[in-house]
Amino acid sequence: MPKFRVPNSASLHAARFLLDSNWFFLARGRRATFELNPRWSHMEPLALAMGAAWGAWCRRQGYEVKVENLGPRARYAARMRLFDHLGVPFAPGVQEHEEAGRFLPVTQVNDTRSLRSVMADISALLHLQDDSETLAAVQYCISELLRNVLEHAASPDGAFVCAHNFAGKALHRVSLAVVDCGCGIREHLGRTHTEAAGDDAAALNLALRPGVTGAVPGMYGTPDNAGAGLFITRCMAKGSGGYFLVASGQAGYRLRRANDPQQQEILLEDPLAERHDSWRFRHPWQGTIVALEIRTDHIGDFDEYFAWIRQRTPRQAVASQRVRFT
Amino acid sequence: MTTTTLRVAPPDMAFAEDKDYARELRIAELLPALERGDAVVLDFQGVRFATQSFVHALIGEALKRFGEAVLDRIEFRNCSDQLRSIVDLVVDYSLGGFSIPEPAATGNGKRRESR
Fold first, then answer.
1. How large is the angle between the packed helices A302-310 and A229-240, nearest 10 degrees?
2. pLDDT surpassing 50 at residue A239
3. What's the gap in Å between the CA of B9 and the closest CA on chain A?
4. Residue A239 · residue A134 · CB < 8 Å
5. Does residue A130 lie within any of the structural domains?
6. Which end of chain B is more exposed for a tag (fewer CB within 10 A), N or C?
7. What angle do CA B23, B25, B28 make, to 5 degrees?
8. ipTM score here?
9. CA of A160, closest CA in chain B: separation in Å?
10. What is the Cα gyration radius of chain B?
11. Total structural domains in chain B?
């Protein structure tokens, strides 16, 4: 049966175990199980958005979703509306002061109207009214990632997005995730890029490079797609020193956090040349997972990110001189 | 030469990410004006940030269709620093493509100059 087992630490830092220890989409039986850790769990947006997307997939396939070890320790997941998406009634007592938490609960986005609603709510939900640089970076990433799903993933349930602004004792950061159970990167890119067909890792590596889109073969893209969104999103995480993770099928890629400021200042076009982890999972994620961190104490000047990214593309000297800004 | 001024005023003015809006503006206003031979002012007054996807959806096709010469007929008005970088980026890759990714190598990266 499909099973989603949540380990003690279901975070970006410990993502490999979460992704590799599950057989999420085993098509057997009539029941799907979401198993919470019996003692405690630290769940971050990555796991919450995955759980919601998985739950929607299970329900669409006709599975009855059961949650094991449901109890008071699941209050955080309940506040993040995970169980709503799993279709499991659970209403623990909610402490009022917690309702003012700095989070975007798991939200399903299946059209541009719901995307606009998320974009409009982010500032207040994450308490970023006084941090315009972080807000811009978060809005940028969420917009690009959600539009990627809506335009390319062929996901019947759309995308599931979740974010949390960690502002306490731990590393100051916004952790966010956008997850779908759509066609996956290999199938999407494989239609136009032969090197991506049949190989999740190759497809994923290709998707992280600038100028690669499944819309047409080759570079540049179409009037509506350039294939740069995932690359720039990766740059955002890199520039602030945070994790960036993409997983699809049996492949996973994670850009590591910067240990010191110098590491985050160098931008490499080739994702495999960065400090990273590449994983091959025993069982696939049917769709795509993207999760990242914007480190709020390292974000710096948002404007400057684009001048930095801009350097990674060849300057057409004549063309650039002819752009007229007034 | 007639000059057409197009106000780029997406629903959420400060952060322009709505590609549907950009596409509509491109198809309904920008491309017809350029087809007529007009000069076009794209006025970003009130927009502080935009996504690359938004700017691409707005001007990418015009650059591809009319080539570099069209830059003589487009003026970008009231652009923030971030918008200028995005416009530069989109103009460059639209006319020249992205650089060809090289095999894994280190030491050839670009450094953020200031923080």
1. 120
2. yes
3. 15
4. no
5. yes
6. N
7. 100
8. 0.88
9. 19
10. 16
11. 1
